[in-house]
Amino acid sequence: MGTGNGKALCGTSPPSPPMIHSGRGVPGLKEYLLSQATPGRWTLEAGMSTDRSAEDLALEIVREKIFQRFYDELPYELTVVPVSCKSLRDGSMRVEHIIVVPHEGVKKIVVGSHGAALKHVGTSARMELQRMWGHKVHLILTVKVGK
């Protein structure tokens, strides 16, 4: 294994890395990837965009927004726990999560001054969920100190 050029693994050398900004090399990369792909059944049925539940998607979006807001500082010290995810009579969704942190100091950071940090996470997650689902979302985030 490991000639460094991929030939031993794939039977053919991969193209040079594509230049992201100029687009040079992208057609070669596409051709290479298609040559290495094997035909198979589709993972999802026609018309389906994902096989994940609304609750799973909401959880991932909230976690993503926490990572984006706090970068490398905190996300590894906290856990997002789903509480509920349900459709309401008016067609909107109510999603509730608890963000569990290890101690009070981390809670203060996640909540932020006058709730600003938590509001930022909640607003950006809610907006993405509304865009993704196409209807209003009521997102409730609570921060608790846990073990």
TrEMBL record:
Residues 1-20 are annotated as: Disordered. GO terms for molecular function: GTP binding; ribosomal small subunit binding; rRNA binding. Keywords: RNA-binding. GO terms for biological process: ribosomal small subunit assembly. The keyword Transmembrane helix does not apply. CDD domains: KH-II_Era. The keyword RNA-binding applies. Residues 73-146 form the KH type-2 domain. InterPro entries: GTPase_Era-like (IPR005662), KH_dom-like_a/b (IPR015946), KH_dom_type_2 (IPR004044), KH_sf_prok-type (IPR009019). PANTHER family: GTPASE ERA, GTPASE ERA, MITOCHONDRIAL. This is KH type-2 domain-containing protein. It comes from Auxenochlorella protothecoides (Green microalga).
